[in-house]
């Protein structure tokens, strides 16, 4: 839902769970994406951020999206630096 532009609060309301539950599931997520292709022409990159717990804990979701297939090719969840990418 996040990839489609649905916010944390909206996910909470749709799924009828607390905002903290949505955030805790995202933080614990270790989902691995297996791309369907080995090469993609013109993938697009987008990002969004939210706070987890309090405003001092800002986290980012950065993802690569292939518009032609609608596939999420890769994503990184964490601080906005290169450490999560390693």
Helix count from the secondary structure assignment: 2
Number of domains: 1
Helix proportion range: 10-25%
Poorly predicted runs: none
Sheet of most strands: 3 strands, antiparallel
Q: What's the overall average pLDDT, rounded?
A: 81
Across the major sheet, the strand order is 1-2-3
The run of helices and strands is HHEEE
Strand runs, count: 3
Radius of gyration: 14 Å
Principal-axis shape equals globular
For the termini, the CA-CA separation is 26 Å
Global structural class: alpha+beta
Taken as a percent bin, the fraction of beta residues is: 25-35%
Pfam family, one: DDE_Tnp_IS1
GO molecular function: DNA binding; transposase activity
InterPro entries: Transposase_27
GO biological process, one term: DNA transposition
Helix-strand blueprint:
Blueprint: H1 8-15, H2 19-28, E1 44-51, E2 58-66, E3 71-78
Helix pairs in contact: 1-2
GO molecular function: DNA binding; transposase activity
Pfam families: DDE_Tnp_IS1 (PF03400)
GO biological process, one term: DNA transposition
List keywords for this structure.
three-stranded antiparallel β-sheet; alpha+beta; 21% helix; single chain; 86 residues; 29% strand; 2 helices
Structure description:
By secondary structure, the chain is of the alpha+beta class. The chain is 21% helix and 29% strand. It is built from two helices and three strands; from the N terminus they run H-H-E-E-E. A three-stranded antiparallel sheet has the order 1-2-3, with no helix packed on it. It is globular, with a radius of gyration of 14 Å. One of its GO terms (biological process) is DNA transposition.
